[in-house]
Amino acid sequence: MAEQSSNPQRMSLPDGVVPEEVVARTEMRWLIVMGAVLLLMITVIVVTAIMGALQPSSNVEVIDPTTLHLGGEFVESNLGTAIEPDGSVTVRLIGEQYEFVPSCVQVPVGAPVKFRLTSADVVHGFLLPDTNVNTMVVPGFVAEVRTYFSRAGDYSMPCHEFCGLGHHAMWAHVRVVPREQFEKAYGNRRPTAIGRITCATQ
Ligand code: CUA
Predict the structure, then answer these.
(1) Is the CB of 163 under 6 A from ligand 1?
(2) Ligand 1 center to residue 107 CA distance, Å?
(3) pLDDT, tens digit, for every residue of 175-184?
(4) What pTM was estimated for this model as a whole?
């Protein structure tokens, strides 16, 4: 055993006790590691937000959720896909426990698409995987997301905000079809709403 010094600061520590400077050095290393992880996460968020054209909700647009069905933009006959005079597409949807109305929308490839959504009851989520579409659908507000589909295909549209017991079953679909097919089916009905199609039968 080492000889004990009379100076208490120089006394050797009992077995199992780690010297203070070793503890401080280890903590500093972990602090640097955590700082680097934090910095990396912030960088990833900023880069993906810019590169993925994510759109933080900036347009505060209010709407009365109790009168959606009585008139205005979200009245039933106005839901679904509508072609604007400039050729762009607007899709209007309502989220409610536990479905999106309409549950299937069709849009053409290559056109600017604007989704406008609101909720009739509680907070829902609207997400199109592999696109920049990802927004909360809050009762009392209109959520607007702009996107563009570069190829045809079916996109699932899950509600990704827990909204009650049926949340897991709240799914809808976006079907992206070639422009010609879209024009052929709906070309002469612009710019009225052309919702209420069934993805399963097409
Ligand atoms: Cu709607 Cu979860």
Answers:
(1) yes
(2) 23
(3) 998 988 887 7
(4) 0.69
